[in-house]
Amino acid sequence: MRAPKKFKSAIPLNALGSVLSIFLFFTIAIICGLCVGVLVFVFEIFSDQSTLELALQNSPETLNENYIGDFLSKYAGLFTWMNLPLFFLTIYFGLKIFKGITLEEIISYSSSKKSVMFFSTLGAIGLVLAMSPYFPEPQQKELDLVSMVASSWIGLLAIVVMAPVTEEIFFRTFLIKGLVKYHSPWIAILVSSILFGIIHMNLWQALPAFFLGLYFGYIFIITNNTLLVIIMHGTVNFIGVLPFLFASDLSTINPNPQYADNAGITGLILFFCSIYFVLKDEEVMQRLLSVDEKNNL
């Protein structure tokens, strides 16, 4: 696989460079979102005579009230899949713009024992349970959006498969492997986790994403296993979307999954027990002990 050629004046992928990479992502997202949105909207109007008549006969306000909601509901899953090209375009241009990260580093990873993968994932579940009593309350429009996306198989796959793959490759593999060239691994974990929370763009998801990002980053540092953090992320997303799959009415959904009154305590116990078994692995411990202030993954 041919790596993108870096620009002559490449920017270090340090903490500031990581922030700039997020601005790069949002810039690409705005451009692509506008282009795809306009194309889909035009296709929808001219393929549906009733929609065209509505657009011609009514004011923009009426069109907005009667159509935009149905339009978003119909294409919510499709738009969610835009993250796939967005993240990979960001990585592609990021490899050209930023120094400190190469394509070879992104595609290289280590394997882990099944026990490490099992307990790491179990720890992620425990962390979700531990945090669940303290999740911020979501707004109704946020619940509506998740429900629209999860209502189709294409949207569900985007949440459970595509999002974990793209986000872990970007935030853990691309950012952390670049950041450790300029900062300690712990600073790299912190910076990538903050940006991971910010990119969710709502408080309901941002705070849990930040703390999960810390855990994902820690596991990535001590395993260098991209597949593992993808599995962990996918499991967490699947747990988060479960209430939306079986609820007939959004008003019955409890977005903060407190499955029992003692969910927080149970989650903490599960989390720390899982970490204990992960760290019992000899390869993991050797890697953890080898981590220093300028460790390269």
Can you offer a commentary on this structure?
With 297 residues, this protein is mainly alpha-helical. It has one domain. Helices cover 74% and strands 1% of the residues. It has helices spanning 15-47, 49-57, 60-80, 83-97, 103-107, 114-131, 140-150, 153-179, 185-198, 203-223, 226-246, 263-279, 282-290, and strands at residues 11-12, 98-99. A two-stranded parallel ribbon has the order 1-2. It is globular, with a radius of gyration of 21 Å. It starts with 10 loop residues before the first strand and ends in a 7-residue tail after the last helix. The mean pLDDT is 84.
List the topology elements:
Elements lengths: L10 E2 L2 H33 L1 H9 L2 H21 L2 H15 E2 L3 H5 L6 H18 L8 H11 L2 H27 L5 H14 L4 H21 L2 H21 L16 H17 L2 H9 L7
Parallel strand pairs: 1-2
Average pLDDT level: 84
Judging from the principal axes of the Cα atoms, what is the shape? Answer: globular
As laid out across the biggest beta sheet, the strand order is 1-2
Q: Round the Cα radius of gyration to an integer and report it.
A: 21 Å
Q: How widely separated are the two ends? A: 21 Å
Annotation, overall tally of beta strands: 2
Structural class: mainly alpha
Binned, the helix content reads over 70%
**Number of helical runs?**
13
Proportion of residues in extended strands: under 5%
Number of domains: 1
Please outline the major beta sheet: 2 strands, parallel
Which stretches are low in confidence, meaning pLDDT under 50 for 5 or more residues running?
none
The helix/strand order is EHHHHEHHHHHHHHH
